[in-house]
Amino acid sequence: MSSSEPRLKPFQLGSIPIDPPLLLAPMAGHTHVGFRTLVRELGACGLVCSELISSHVLEHNPKSRQTRDLFDWSPAEWPFAVQLFGSVPQEMATAARLVVEAGAPIVDINMGCWVPKVAKKGCGAALLSDLLKAEAVVRAVCEAVDVPVTVKVRIGFEQGKPTAVSFAQAAANAGAKLITVHGRYAKQGFKGQSDHSVTAKVKETVGSSMAVIANGDIVDTESARMVLQETGCDGLMLGRECLRRPWILAKMAHELCGKPLPDARFHPARIARRQFELTRTLVKKPEKVVVRELRGQLLPYRLGAPTDHNRPERTELEMELRERLVKAETFEQMEQFLLEAEEKTWAN
Ligand SMILES: Cc1cc2nc3c(=O)[nH]c(=O)nc-3n(C[C@H](O)[C@H](O)[C@H](O)COP(=O)(O)O)c2cc1C
Fold first, then answer.
1. Is 235 in the pocket of ligand 1 (CB under 6 A)?
2. Catalytic one of 45, 113, 123, 233
3. CB 22 near ligand 1, within 6 Å
4. I need a labelling partner for 37 at 20 to 30 A (CA). Which of 64, 80, 245, 270 fits?
5. Torsions phi, psi of 203, nearest 5?
């Protein structure tokens, strides 16, 4: 790293080192224990996070099978965060106590989810339109547990009305130790490009009292450098690119922080097969469900490619393998398919 490059230094979250400060984003339906373990195996990653868990369900139906399936973390993943969502401070406090009792070393509060199922109930990003309630939620969680509490937000709810800076100040006052800012308004969903200028203001305003992480459309070392330059942030979080290339954080950790790379070949089909193996072993759901979910989870991979690439156009082999992937019905069929995909591409 040359002296003109933006710095990316490890930092502490309470007593927990975040090293390298490159984080895997929470992604519902994807970042289960199998995927998180894969990302950790592929190389250095500072922090992983569970899928989001409803505090309302934990308070009112604590034995819900669907919600308990999300309590899938293991100490081997340390450090990791468990993400909660909800708009009732008391429910969030109860949920935070429950996940900490179950081993969570960090509690993350979701204030970025825009999907109607969550936002229409006043949870997720909707809290960014009600800063008093948002602050009360953060305070209740911070008072309930003695582990670091973090928050994940959008730059605001309504397009053109950034509220992340005032929210960040409130969250810091309430005791949160880290804020991740996805550079889009909730109303944008995933449309448009991330605007990291608000994140830069968040860093400027609360950077001395909490860590600030930039998120949104970071896909490689080059875009990472640009976002670091623009925001001066303490770290970066990546989401969708990790679904396409789960090794991207390890690669960036190597290129930006000099971390060792266990394997630099990044063969998509081989890594997809490892994801399959870990998911089959670690995700405790019926085979039919795991296979159905895996079909969607493996689809973003460039399975027909012999090595790492993110060119937009797909080759004929990539198209053919995508079509075959979605037809797998059992573990055996999926494993067979992945072995063939690996053989077809390994020698190329
Ligand atoms: C399939 C999917 C599921 C997501 N689920 C969550 C979630 O449960 N909690 C959350 O805070 N963000 C969630 N997000 C948002 C990501 O964490 C991240 O903020 C967003 O994708 C922008 O980062 P990226 O451009 O690197 O993907 C999700 C995103 C995707 C694509």
1. no
2. 113
3. no
4. 64
5. -60, -45
Cα dihedral value 277, 310, 217, 114, nearest 10: -50
Q: Whose CA is nearest to atom 5 of ligand 1?
A: 27
Distance CA 344, CA 63 (A): 45
pLDDT tens sequence across 91-105: 999 999 999 999 999
Q: Where are the alpha helices (DSSP H) in the chain?
A: 33-42, 55-60, 65-68, 89-101, 116-119, 131-144, 164-174, 197-206, 221-231, 240-244, 248-257, 268-282, 287-298, 316-325, 331-346
Q: Which of 24, 182, 185, 194 to mutate to test the pocket of ligand 1 (most atoms within 8 A of CB)?
A: 182
Output the pLDDT for position 347: 65
Could you count the other beta carbons within 10 Å of the beta carbon of residue 105? 20
Alpha carbon distance 322, 288 (integer Å): 19
Q: Is the CB of 299 under 6 A from ligand 1?
A: no
Phi, psi torsion values for 306, nearest 5 degrees: -75, -20
The separation between CA 63 and the C-alpha centre of its own chain, rounded to angstroms, equals: 25
Active site (annotated) includes residue 142: no
pLDDT in tens, 306-333: 888 777 788 888 888 889 899 999 999 9
**Contact (Cβ atoms closer than 8 angstroms) between residue 81 and residue 153:** no
Phi–psi pair at 278, nearest 5 degrees? -65, -40
3-class secondary-structure state, position 323: helix
The answer to whether the CB of 128 falls within 8 A of the CB of 78 is no
pLDDT for residue 1 is more than 90? no
Q: Which residue ranges does the chain devote to CATH 3.20.20.70?
A: 11-257
pLDDT at 45 over 70: yes
Is the separation of the CB atoms in 33 and 283 below 8 Å? Answer: yes
Mutate to test the pocket of ligand 1, among 178, 240, 242 (most ligand atoms within 8 A of CB): 240
